Amino acid sequence: MARVLLFGRLADQAGWREREVEAASLAALRASIAHDDAALARALEGPGVQVAVDKALVRGEAVLAAATEVAFLPPMSGG
Amino acid sequence: MITLAQAPFDPGALLTAFCAGRDETGAVASFVGLARAEGGSASILELEAYPGFTESAIEAFAVEAAGRFGLQDWRIVHRVGKIAPGEAVVFVTTAAKHRRAAFEACDFLMDWLKSRAPFWKKEHGPAGARWIEPTAQDRTDAQRWDV
């Protein structure tokens, strides 16, 4: 189970901020989210959205171990 | 040290504590950013951070600033959650042997915090809520330091 975190406008769009998703890779995670909410899955691949796995930014694919934290970060606004 | 604060904080008390017990520091510079009411159009500012990730990003940048400007020490406190107009949003202070390094590092840290720090900002007003992204001016201010 990966723990998925959404921030900013992505959380507003989804209507949730945190959820457990059964997925062994980032691609499987995206597919699982798309199954429930296709518009959200598209937004997660939108321009400027970054992905952090266990608080480190990743590009492209990533293998997810048990209890991995996956965060989708829309463009940061600064403080 | 970086702290994300859920509740209002007292910048004066932070500055006093930061200045205490320094006998090799010639200069302490500080900056306090306050939430603006924007003539009533913004009643509440809401800042979201990613706990752990946000502090690490700010810490890494402050460590870079410390090396670049030769700082002896620094302290950053940033509010998160709902912030009312007039409340402090951010406090940055820097300590150096001489004033130029302290001033410049403080300016540098604020430009970066305003444009690149991992926060998501929402403005709540009479017309509803909207997410805010960095302004062109914030980006230009940050680019002044690119070498």
UniProtKB/TrEMBL annotation, chain A:
Gene3D superfamilies: 3.10.20.30
InterPro entries named in the record: Beta-grasp_dom_sf (IPR012675), Mopterin_synth/thiamin_S_b (IPR016155), ThiS/MoaD-like (IPR003749)
Pfam families on file: ThiS
Origin superkingdom: Bacteria
Name of this protein: Molybdopterin synthase sulfur carrier subunit
Organism: Caulobacter endophyticus
UniProtKB/TrEMBL annotation, chain B:
Pathways per UniProt: Cofactor biosynthesis; molybdopterin biosynthesis
Membership in a protein family: Belongs to the MoaE family.
Functional note: Converts molybdopterin precursor Z into molybdopterin. This requires the incorporation of two sulfur atoms into precursor Z to generate a dithiolene group. The sulfur is provided by MoaD.
Enzyme class: transferase
EC number(s) given by UniProt: 2.8.1.12
Lineage per the UniProt record: Bacteria, Pseudomonadati, Pseudomonadota, Alphaproteobacteria, Caulobacterales
Pfam families given in the database record: MoaE
Name of the protein in its database record: Molybdopterin synthase catalytic subunit
InterPro entries with a match to the protein in the record: MoaE_sf (IPR036563), Mopterin_biosynth_MoaE (IPR003448)
Keyword match Repeat: no
GO terms (BP aspect): Mo-molybdopterin cofactor biosynthetic process
Source organism superkingdom: Bacteria
Keyword Nucleotide-binding carried by entry: no
Catalytic activity entry: 2 [molybdopterin-synthase sulfur-carrier protein]-C-terminal-Gly-aminoethanethioate + cyclic pyranopterin phosphate + H2O = molybdopterin + 2 [molybdopterin-synthase sulfur-carrier protein]-C-terminal Gly-Gly + 2 H(+)
